[in-house]
Prior knowledge:
three-stranded antiparallel sheet, 11% strand, 82 residues, mainly alpha
Amino acid sequence: MILPSKSIPGEKSLIALGGRVLDLLQQSPLTVTSVWTELHASESAAQTAPTSFEWFVLSLDMLYALGAIELEPTGVLRTVES
């Protein structure tokens, strides 16, 4: 689930999706809705299968659990500088 497997292609694994989310957030902090919109726009441009919202939320959960992102009180997601 987190890593690619026989049933989960590399580009749809949570680790790959989390990397794309981090790329978006390193440009500037965004709301969850904005990240979701940007992710779908990039998938449409690349003509890849769209990511489900549930899988997107799991990637946010994974990034938060790893300490890579945090949610500000204003509702904006940002990367955590280490």
